[in-house]
Amino acid sequence: MAEGKKSLNFIEQIIEEDLKNDYKREELKFRFPPEPNGYLHIGHASSICLNFGLGERYDAPVNLRFDDTNPTKEEQEYVDAIKRDVEWLGYKWAKECYASDYFQQLYDWAVEMIKNGDAYVDSQTSEEIAEQKGTPTQPGKESPYRNRPVEENLDLFEKMKNGETPERGHVLRAKIDMASPNMLMRDPVMYRCLHKHHHRTGDNWKIYPMYDWAHGQSDFIEHVSHSFCTLEFLPHRELYNWFIEKVSKEGDFDPKQREFARRNLSHTIVSKRKLLQLVEKGIVDSWDDPRMPTISGLRRRGYTPDSIKNFANSIGVGKRENMIDVSHLEFCIREDLNKIAPRVMGVLDPVKLIITNYPEGEEEWLEAENNPEDESAGSRQVPFSRELYIEQEDFKESANRKFFRLTLGKEVRLKNAYIIKGEDVVKDEEGNIKEIHCTYDPKSKSGSGTEESLRKVKGTLHWVSVKHAIKAEVRLYDRLFTEETPDGIKDREYLEFVNEESLKTVTGYLEPSLKDAKIQDKVQFQRIGYFCVDKDSTPEKPVFNRTVTLRDSWAKKKN
After folding, report:
1. What positions does the entry give for ATP binding (predicted)?
2. Catalytic residue flag (residue 65)
3. What CATH number should be reported for the domain holding residue 366?
4. In 42, 128, 315, 392, which residue has its Cα 20 to 30 A from 112's Cα atom?
5. Would you state the pLDDT for residue 38?
6. pLDDT (tens digit, 9 = 90+) per residue, 312-350?
7. Is the same domain home to 442 and 399?
8. Is pLDDT of 3 > 50?
9. Residues 80 and 222 in one domain
């Protein structure tokens, strides 16, 4: 392996052990099997990185297979979104597959199982079947239809397929063991009647396979070697193997299911049902709202593929579930954007600064470094003039010695420009500051090499020239939930913990270099945070999304 001495996680150890025994490297094949009933979220991103990462590590194919067995919840929109997300993360699948590709084969196998006495049609209601299942400590009861004659089962199953049976009229169940300690082995349902239009097969089918029947057989058909899923499917493994045993023949290559622990993320929900509720209730605008934990939401917010891959790799895979603080995900995007995002100046809460001794009507263009972390990023020219915007929080009329920004009688440096000194203020009738008047030292220009330019002052402020500023809509996004486990508090509804300050929209004034910024371009507004251009942006009305603040503002709240 290319990793050399790098320690292996337990999944890689399983693969390595299989390769030492009866597996051949050319037989390795993996799959990512999403259900197209919603957009993928950050949890799916970890699974994508795991399966496709294994494909890259072992030079093995990885199929993208859609588990499209429930037409009541699945849509083509979700299929398209999933494909976009996987491609955006930088992965290529070997084959694009669908469980619906195998509907005929699954049906034919089910018929053979009926003939072999391994399946039967049950005419009870779902409530009656559930009641007869028993409990983990008590065996279940056999269905009164369990010993139907084979010919009657075949006739009823064909009528189910042809739509001659009403929905909920019959189900097909595997005949296994109603006393099994694994309740999933107590004659599980294989097919149910659903007279619903399917996004791929149309109205061809009136019955649809259950997950446990379709999933393992799809792996078997595609010759998947290792089928990785989360720990909740550990009890399903016995049934997975039982079904494959019923359809395979001696010499066939049988897939192996293995489980890993889900990684939960704080201040987040990942239930597709609940995410859909957020959209339907108007709490967020859409599945790709930048506050959503969906991959498309993270992309729109300004996250990069590398940041998500680094996050997935850093939390790894394990055998026990645990909670990952969302601040770790935020750290990963800060770390990536720090390397690649150009530094620019923008003012989001402006107050006008007038340099009284700077010539009226004059302007000059100053050199500004694009990214101190990247020497190849070069520099740009920014305009400077007599009237500037600075942040309101960067000025106080009077302040203590620990305030290192602008105040009356004190000097600070304007980034890439001059040293200025606060002189006076102009207020409105309510006492609010409308203008700050200051003077500048003409010989203190940054980078000029003069003695004055080398003078040390404790504060440096960002600014934008009023005359040249671009007006933009700036969306300040924050965590969607205030509670660490919003859907894990007993007797409390997760919607109670929605953060009312998860989105604040302000008008920002940006340096003119951003007039040509394109959708998804990423920048750092110096001293404020990382931002990207939103898809709503137009040349006439630029829109920027805050990806993340420069520092973890939630750490203080938590402490």
Report:
1. 35-37, 230, 270-272
2. no
3. 2.40.240.10
4. 128
5. 96
6. 999 999 998 889 999 999 999 999 999 999 999 999 999
7. yes
8. no
9. yes
Question: Pick the catalytic residue: 159, 246, 262, 421?
Answer: 262
Q: How many CB atoms lie within 10 A of CB 154?
A: 15
Indicate which residue of 29, 272, 405, 522 is catalytic: 272
Backbone angles phi, psi at 454, to 5 degrees: -90, 0
pLDDT of residue 553: 78
The confidence score (pLDDT) of residue 202 equals: 96
Residue 319 annotated as catalytic: no
- Do 233 and 156 belong to one domain? no
Number of domains in the chain: 4
Residue 559 annotated as lining a ligand binding site: no
Q: Is 35 annotated as a binding residue?
A: yes
Where does 409-549 have alpha helices with state H? none
Q: pLDDT per residue over 243-283, tens digit each?
A: 999 999 999 999 999 999 998 999 999 999 999 999 999 99
67 known ligand binder: yes
Is 511 inside any structural domain?
yes
Burial 463-487 (b: 16+ CB within 10 A, else e): bbbbebbbebbbbbbbbbbbbbebb
Q: Are residues 219 and 75 in the same domain?
A: yes
Q: How confident is the model at residue 1 (pLDDT cuts 50, 70, 90)?
A: very low
Same domain, 192 and 58: no
Catalytic residue among 16, 35, 238, 423: 35
Task: Say whether 246 counts as a known binding-site residue.
Answer: no
- What is each CA distance from 330 to 71, 525, 548, in whole angstroms? 36, 17, 7
**Residues of the domain holding 290:** 20-97+214-323
Give the three-state DSSP class for 288: coil
* Cα 492 from Cα 494, distance rounded (Å): 6
Report the amino acid identity of residue 223. Answer: H
Identify the pLDDT of residue 2: 46
The answer to whether residue 373 is domain-embedded is: yes
